[in-house]
Write a sequence for this structure.
C-alpha cells in the first residue's frame, strides 16, 4: 500500500505548505461525487484523524484515510502544466473510467 | 484529468466557478485569441508556442480546411485554393472588391450574385463568412484545448470603421463557428482597455491602428474611468498589405530595369516584399535576392515609396481631431496598434504629428486581443461588471430615403451607442396606403452615393390626404452596432419593424421579397398553425374515446352510443377541411357528449378498485 509523488509535485507541496505557514502535510483521498462516481480530495492537513496512514515521500507527508486508500493505492501524484493551467495530476492505476471533465473517476 | 489544487481542510474555500470566455481579434493578416488565466489576460499560443494565427485558409477537396501557417505556406504554391486577407471581403460586393483590388489570386463563383460573392476553391465555393468561421473555429479549438473546457462566449473585435453589413457578417461567422458572441467590440476601445487606461482619471487618447488590411484612427475620451469614443475615421482597405504591394511593385520595376527577362509570380514578389519590410523594422538596410538577382532596400527608400500612404494615415488623424473638435495639444496619449506600427517610418510620422512618442510597450499585435479578453471576462461575469464601462460610437450616419432620392439622416455619425432616435415622416400622395422605407448608411446627401442597408414597407396606412398621416420612424442601434428600424403610423397604430439585415449577402430585392412574403403570409401562417393545433387536440380526444368504448362500451345505452357516434363523425369530417374555430367547436361538442360516459367509467373503476376492501383498509391506504 503506497502513494508516490514526483519531485516537482513534492516541491510545489513543500512551497505551498511554507506559504501557508502551518500544516503537517497534504491529505489525498476520494469522495463520492461527479458524473463518474468519485472525485479526488486534495487538501492541507492540520490534524490527523484516527486510522490515517502517513506516507513520507520526497520530504513531504502524504496523509490518506484507510477508506480512501483502497481506491487510490499505487497512485502517482505529479505537478504538470497544461497550457496556461497548472496543478496536480493523479495517475491512478485503479481508475477504470473518467468523466469528460476529468473531475471524477470510476473504479 | 482535470488538474487539482490543494484545498483548505474540509473544503472550506469553495472553488470559484470560473466561466470560460475568450477575446478574439479576427484580423486581416493574423488572428489571436486571449483568455483570463489566473492573474491576467494573455493571448493563447498554439502547440508550437505561436500566438499569431495567420488568417489564411487552405481548402482541399473533401478535407477539413487548413488554417494558419500551414495554409500560409501554400499561398504561393496553390494560390487558387488558399484564401488570405478575407476580412477585406466581409460585407463587400464582388464589384466593390474588384474595384478595390487590382489583383486577386482567385476566381469568383460566377453563379453567385454580385452582392454575395464567393471564392471558387477545390472544396466548393466559399464566401467571406464561411472562411472567417473556419479561422474562428481554429481559434476556438486552440482555446478549448488550452483551457480544457467548452467556451461559453467570446468578445470579437471589429474595426471601429466597419459598417453594419461588415459587423453583421462578423457575427454570422462567429455563429457559424459555434461561438456565442457576447459583444462585438471596436478594436481601438479594446486597445485602450488593454493599456488599462480606465484606471486613469481622464484624458484624450488617440488609437492609431495600422494592421495588415485595415486602418483606424479613433479618439477616445476618458472621463472618471469611462471611455467614450468621440470620433473614428479610417479606411477598411489600407494596411500593411498595401505596403507589401508597394514594395512588390517596386521590386518588379527594379527587375524590369535590370533587364531581367524572367518575371516572378506576384505572390512570390509579395513574400519577398513582406520579409524585407519586417527586416527594415529592426535594421536600416536589407538585401533582397531572388531568381539569381539581388537588390537593396533601405528605410530611406521605403519612406519615399510609402510617403503617400503614410500621408493618408496622418490626414486621417487630422480628420478625427476635426470631427471631435480637438487640437493636437488636447491629446494625452497615442496608442499604437497593429503590426505595421512596428515600422519606424510609421512611428516617426505619428510622433511628429502628435508631438509626442506613442505608447508601444504592449505588443501591437496582441493589444487588441488582450483588451477583448478582459472585456469577455467582465461580460461572462468573472469580474465585477462595474470595473469599467465602455461606450462605442456609430461610425457612419444612418438615415432613410425621402422623396427626390435624398437622404434624411436619423442617427448622425459618431453618435454614442446604444442609441435610439425617431423622426416623423408623412405621406406624399392623397390616399397613399403604403410607404416604402429605404434604410441607408453614409454621409452623402444622395441615396445613390450611400450604402443601401435594407428596404421595407409600411402597409395599410389609412387613406388620408397627403401630409395627414404621421409615420414615426425609429432607428435603434444596439451595443454591437447593429441596427433595427421601426415605422409606425401613429393615428392607426399600424407598425412595421425589422432587424435590418445588411444588403450584402442578400440582394435588396430579395430582402424586400422576404419581408413582403413574411408580412403577406403572416395571417395565413398563423391560421395554419392554429389548425394544426386544433387537429392535434381533436385527434387526441378521438383516440381516447375510441379506446374507452373498446374497454367499457357496455356501459352505454343505444341512444348514448348513437349520440357519441354522431359527434365523433362530425368531428372527423370537420377536422379535414374546417377552420381552427370549427374544429375546436366540434371537439368541444364531443367532449360534452362524452362527459356522462366518462363519469360512468370513473364510478365503475373506483367501485372495482374498492371491491373486497374494507373501509378500514381504504382509510389506511389514503393515510
Amino acid at each position: 500500500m503506497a502513494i508516490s509523488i514526483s519531485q516537482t509535485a513534492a516541491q510545489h507541496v513543500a512551497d505551498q505548505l511554507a506559504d501557508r505557514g502551518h500544516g503537517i502535510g497534504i491529505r489525498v483521498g476520494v469522495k463520492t461525487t461527479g458524473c463518474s462516481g468519485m472525485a479526488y480530495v486534495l487538501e492541507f492537513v492540520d490534524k490527523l484523524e484516527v486510522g490515517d496512514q502517513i506516507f513520507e515521500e520526497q520530504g513531504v507527508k502524504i496523509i490518506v484515510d484507510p477508506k480512501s486508500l483502497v481506491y487510490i493505492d499505487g497512485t502517482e501524484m505529479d505537478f504538470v502544466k497544461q497550457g496556461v493551467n497548472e496543478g496536480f495530476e493523479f495517475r491512478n492505476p485503479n481508475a477504470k473510467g473518467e468523466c469528460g471533465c476529468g473531475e471524477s473517476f470510476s473504479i | 484529468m482535470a488538474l487539482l489544487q490543494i484545498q483548505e481542510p474540509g473544503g472550506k474555500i469553495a472553488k470559484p466557478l470560473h466561466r470560460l470566455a475568450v477575446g478574439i481579434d479576427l484580423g486581416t493578416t493574423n488572428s489571436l485569441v486571449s483568455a483570463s488565466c489566473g492573474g491576467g489576460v494573455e493571448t493563447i499560443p498554439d502547440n508550437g508556442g505561436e500566438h499569431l494565427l495567420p488568417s489564411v485558409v487552405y481548402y482541399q477537396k473533401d478535407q477539413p480546411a487548413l488554417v494558419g501557417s500551414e495554409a500560409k505556406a501554400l499561398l504561393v504554391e496553390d494560390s487558387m485554393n488558399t484564401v488570405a486577407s478575407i476580412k477585406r471581403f466581409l460585407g463587400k460586393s464582388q464589384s466593390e472588391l474588384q474595384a478595390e483590388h487590382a489583383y486577386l489570386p482567385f476566381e469568383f463563383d460566377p453563379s453567385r450574385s454580385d452582392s454575395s460573392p464567393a471564392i471558387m476553391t477545390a472544396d466548393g465555393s466559399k464566401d467571406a463568412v464561411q472562411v472567417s468561421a473556419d479561422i474562428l473555429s481554429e481559434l476556438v479549438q486552440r482555446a478549448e484545448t488550452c483551457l480544457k473546457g467548452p467556451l461559453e462566449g467570446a468578445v470579437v473585435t471589429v474595426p471601429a470603421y466597419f459598417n453594419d453589413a461588415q459587423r453583421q457578417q462578423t457575427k454570422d461567422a462567429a455563429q457559424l463557428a459555434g461561438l456565442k458572441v457576447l459583444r462585438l467590440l471596436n478594436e481601438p476601445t479594446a486597445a485602450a482597455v488593454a493599456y488599462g487606461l480606465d484606471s486613469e482619471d481622464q484624458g484624450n487618447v488617440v488609437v492609431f491602428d495600422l494592421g495588415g488590411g485595415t486602418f483606424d484612427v479613433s479618439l477616445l475620451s476618458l472621463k472618471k474611468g469611462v471611455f467614450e469614443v468621440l470620433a473614428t475615421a479610417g479606411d477598411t482597405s489600407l494596411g500593411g498589405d498595401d505596403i507589401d504591394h508597394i514594395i512588390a511593385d517596386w521590386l518588379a520595376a527594379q527587375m524590369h530595369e535590370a533587364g531581367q527577362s524572367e518575371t516572378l509570380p506576384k505572390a512570390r514578389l509579395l513574400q519577398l516584399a513582406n520579409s524585407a519590410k519586417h527586416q527594415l523594422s529592426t535594421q536600416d538596410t536589407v538585401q533582397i535576392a531572388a531568381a539569381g538577382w539581388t537588390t537593396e532596400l533601405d528605410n530611406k527608400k521605403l519612406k519615399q515609396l510609402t510617403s503617400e500612404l503614410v500621408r493618408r494615415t496622418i490626414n486621417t488623424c487630422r480628420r478625427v481631431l476635426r470631427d471631435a473638435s480637438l487640437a493636437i495639444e488636447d491629446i494625452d496619449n497615442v496608442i499604437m496598434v497593429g503590426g505595421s506600427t512596428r515600422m519606424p517610418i510609421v512611428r516617426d510620422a505619428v510622433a511628429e504629428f502628435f508631438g509626442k512618442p506613442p505608447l508601444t510597450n504592449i505588443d501591437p499585435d496582441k493589444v487588441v486581443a488582450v483588451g477583448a479578453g478582459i472585456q469577455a471576462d467582465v461580460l461572462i461575469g468573472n469580474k465585477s461588471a462595474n470595473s469599467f464601462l465602455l461606450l462605442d460610437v456609430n461610425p457612419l450616419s444612418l438615415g432613410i430615403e425621402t422623396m427626390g432620392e435624398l437622404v434624411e439622416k436619423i442617427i448622425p455619425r459618431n453618435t454614442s451607442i446604444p442609441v435610439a432616435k425617431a423622426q416623423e415622416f408623412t405621406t406624399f400622395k392623397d390616399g397613399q396606403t403604403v410607404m416604402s422605407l429605404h434604410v441607408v448608411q453614409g454621409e452623402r446627401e444622395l441615396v445613390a452615393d450611400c450604402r443601401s442597408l435594407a428596404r421595407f414597407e409600411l402597409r395599410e396606412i389609412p387613406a388620408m390626404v397627403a401630409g395627414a398621416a404621421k409615420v414615426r420612424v425609429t432607428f435603434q442601434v444596439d451595443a454591437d452596432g447593429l441596427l433595427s428600424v421601426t415605422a409606425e403610423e401613429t393615428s392607426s397604430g399600424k407598425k412595421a419593424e425589422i432587424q435590418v439585415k445588411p444588403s450584402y449577402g442578400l440582394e435588396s430585392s430579395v430582402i424586400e421579397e422576404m419581408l413582403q412574403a413574411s408580412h403577406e403570409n403572416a395571417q395565413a401562417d398563423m391560421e395554419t398553425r392554429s389548425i394544426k393545433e386544433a387537429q392535434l387536440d381533436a385527434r387526441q380526444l378521438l383516440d381516447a374515446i375510441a379506446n374507452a368504448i373498446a374497454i367499457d362500451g357496455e356501459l352505454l345505452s343505444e341512444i348514448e352510443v348513437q349520440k357519441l357516434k354522431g359527434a365523433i363523425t362530425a368531428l372527423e369530417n370537420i377536422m379535414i377541411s374546417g377552420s381552427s374555430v370549427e374544429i375546436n367547436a366540434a371537439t368541444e361538442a364531443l367532449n360534452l357528449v362524452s362527459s356522462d360516459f366518462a363519469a360512468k367509467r370513473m364510478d365503475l373503476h373506483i367501485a372495482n378498485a374498492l371491491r373486497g376492501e374494507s373501509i378500514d383498509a381504504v382509510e389506511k391506504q389514503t393515510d
About this structure: Chain B touches chain A at residues 1-11, 35, 37-38, 42, 44, 145-149 (CB under 8 Å). Residues 17-195+364-387 of chain B form a domain with the Nucleotidyltransferase; domain 5 fold (CATH 3.30.420.40). The longest strand of chain B covers residues 226-235.
